[in-house]
Fold this protein.
Amino acid sequence: MKRLISVAVTSAVLASSQVHATVSDDDFAQLRADLAAMAQRLNTLEAENANLREISESTVTELDVAQTELAGVVKGNSASSWAERIKVKGDFRYRYEEI
């Protein structure tokens, strides 16, 4: 039984003709045009990505400079912090007590 099935399958495989995919020239030209459009879009996106990376790097540099300046301001502020520690207590309302 197994031999009969294997012979039937083998003869079916050998007897069948191979199917080749055929694409018309118009379809192939359309595929090439689509591929060229995708390649152009990819190049545009890569250029935009490179531009955004440059902007990001310059922003990081500006942020480092700003943090350095902020550290200097904080250091200068700590020298004048004595004015923030002074407290004055009392009643400082203006009195209308003229005779």
